[in-house]
Write a structure and sequence with these properties.
CATH topology of chain B: Folate-binding fold
Oligomer: heterodimer
Number of strands of chain B: 6
CATH topology of the largest domain in chain A: Gyrase A, domain 2
CATH class of the largest domain in chain A: Alpha Beta
Bound molecules: zinc ion
Number of helices of chain B: 2
Largest sheet of chain B: 4 strands, antiparallel
Distance between the termini of chain B: 33 Å
Largest interface: A-B, 15 and 14 residues
Strand order of the largest sheet of chain B: 3-4-5-6
Shape of chain A: elongated
CATH architecture of the largest domain in chain A: 2-Layer Sandwich
Number of helices of chain A: 4
Shape of chain B: globular
Strand order of the largest sheet of chain A: 1-2-8-11-10-9
Helix content of chain A: 10-25%
Strand content of chain A: 35-45%
Strand content of chain B: 25-35%
């Protein structure tokens, strides 16, 4: 699914390029070894994103992270984790094709996000994120900057989510 | 909308991220084959249906994914506390002065 970038009503909605993505599950005892193999820190504070070696890891749950990297990095991530698998058993599942990535940014972005997310957005600072619900759709939400959010949404839910975003953008543009 | 504190995320979050998962602290029998039919009925189907403080499981399904326990007043819908799975049932009377509805003969 692709769509054209649109700026109106103080927000820009655009599609982001593909990237390598993995779901990583690892227990406390093995976490440091897997983090070392990947070349980044894995925090167990839910909602916090760490980065290193050109990769990012967002902690979604006490033993769950979503890893992302450049599109060509998937094989290297798989190999790095496979290298420590015997000593540090874990689960690594590639989900690169599962989602599309949407960025919403601009001065009115909080108003746009608040129409879909029931969370208190001020509790999510830049560099933090969460798995949550956007207008009934499960999403992984990341606040990249104060005025820029990224939504990772399963492909089949994307038409609904985009319909919502563009509809609200029209409302914002018309001054509602 | 209810706001529910997830003890794993450490945040108080909208109800839409959570799923209710029945009464808490119901232990599966350690030796299932030694249970009588009546004991199985008790384990599978009989719930306390409290009017008052109820200990219940919730799952933060659209968040961290974890099951945890909560003490909620079934009349006011107020959550008195939430705590991680595996932790003991908190003393609600000491916390709030409200008597918790614990079924007779329960642990
Ligand atoms: Zn949680």
């Amino acid at each position: 699914m692709t769509f054209d970038k649109k700026t109106a009503g103080g927000v820009t909605i655009e599609e982001l390029p593909a990237e390598a993505r993995f779901s990583l599950r690892v227990r406390d005892g093995e976490r440091a070894a897997v983090a070392g193999a990947l070349g980044l820190e894995l925090t167990d504070t839910v909602g916090v994103m760490t980065s290193g070696s050109g990769r990012k890891a967002l902690c979604l749950g006490p033993d769950e992270w979503v890893l992302s990297g450049a599109p060509g990095d998937a094989a290297a991530i798989t190999a790095a984790c496979a290298g420590v698998y015997d000593a540090a058993p874990h689960s690594l599942v590639e989900i690169s094709e599962r989602e599309i990535f949407i960025r919403a940014s601009g001065p009115a972005v909080e108003a746009l996000m608040a129409t879909g997310v029931a969370r208190d957005l001020s509790r999510i600072g830049p560099g933090q994120g969460a798995r949550t619900v956007f207008d009934g759709t499960p999403v992984v939400l990341v606040r990249e900057k104060t005025d820029s959010f990224r939504l990772n949404v399963w492909r089949s839910f994307a038409p609904h989510l985009l319909g919502h975003l563009f509809h609200v953008q029209k409302e914002l543009a018309s001054g509602l | 909308m209810l706001l529910i504190h997830c003890p794993y995320c450490g945040e108080t979050l909208p109800e839409t991220e959570f799923a209710y998962a029945g009464e808490a602290h119901i232990a599966r029998p350690e030796n299932p084959s030694e249970q009588t039919d009546a004991e199985w009925v008790e384990y599978l189907f009989m719930r306390s249906n409290v009017k008052g403080v109820h200990f219940e499981r919730w799952r933060h399904i659209h968040g961290c994914g974890r099951f945890f326990n909560a003490a909620r007043h079934t009349v006011t819908d107020k959550f008195l506390t939430t705590y991680k799975a595996g932790e003991p049932r908190p003393d609600i009377e000491a916390l709030t002065g409200i008597k918790a509805g614990v079924k007779e003969g329960e642990k």
